[in-house]
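In the present case, backbone shapes were mapped to integers, as reproduced here:
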Amino acid sequence: MLSEASISSTSAGQRDGQRQAPLKSPAPVALPRTSEKEPPPYGAQHRQDALWKGGNEALPPLWHQFQVSDRTVYQDDTLVISSSKRPLPGVRLDYPGDLVDPECEWHISPFGRSYFVNHNTRTTSWNKPRPERPAGSLTPERIIEGHSRFIWSLAGKETESQ
């Protein structure tokens, strides 16, 4: 039988919104991650500590820093895109309107990998956003086809003039 003191402290804890774990259940242990397969989830874009070698003081792997005129530029060599903002987890690296989709943002994960947040779909992706082609727009095949016709028509005109 429970003592009156334990009943009152339990009910007080429940009133305060505290939950107590059962005494014999093991607490879940969070193992430190050393890599990532998926980009951070939507909504996790906040300041975090860098998990790459050197932490927040060093540049992430495969990033370079260089000077252009009087400003410092940081470049991600895997995607060949650059930013004037220092790459730190939780910092938005693009400026509004820089990317193809204005509802997307460029961020960096705690492991130093660039990823993109799409606010339209509330998703994240490793892939840089690409423009959507309207139906009937020129595809690379049509551009090549049109280019070939143009070259053949020029070649035909050249033989006519001789």
Remarks:
- The two ends are 112 Å apart (CA to CA).
- The first strand starts at residue 63 and ends at 68.
- Residues 1-23, 27-32 have pLDDT under 50 and may be disordered.
- The beta strands are 63-68, 71-76, 81-83, 104-108, 114-118, 123-125.
